[in-house]
Amino acid sequence: MIALQMPSELTIYTAQSVLDQVLAEEDSRALQLDLSATQEIDGAGVQLLLAIQAHAKQRQWSVSLTNACASVSAVLALFQMADLMTEPRIDE
């Protein structure tokens, strides 16, 4: 499993670099995205997570999100993506 630390913001300004980082992990069969540092997420960040999920599904990888703060967890829940969380969320 490859664990990747996500940046403090998953926004339009960081989405491409994060996607490039994920796509570089071609040898992995499982990705764990650590959201402990992520405090802000916008529509581009949500699209990024959906793109990563689609990329992983196409390659038969598993993807999990861990350590999301309450505000990021709320956004994930709003978009019905909370099922990607594999560990308890971090309280703010």
UniProtKB/TrEMBL annotation:
Give the CDD domains listed for this entry.
Answer: STAS_anti-anti-sigma_factors (cd07043)
From which residue to which does any coiled coil extend? Answer: none
Q: Taxonomically, which superkingdom?
A: Bacteria
Pfam families assigned: STAS_2 (PF13466)
PROSITE patterns for the chain: STAS
User: What InterPro entries does the record point to?
Assistant: MlaB-like_STAS, MlaB_ABC_Transporter, STAS_dom, STAS_dom_sf
Q: Specify the STAS domain's residue ranges.
A: 1-92
Gene3D superfamilies reported for this sequence: STAS domain
What the entry lists under PANTHER family is as follows: BLR2341 PROTEIN
The entry's protein name is: STAS domain-containing protein
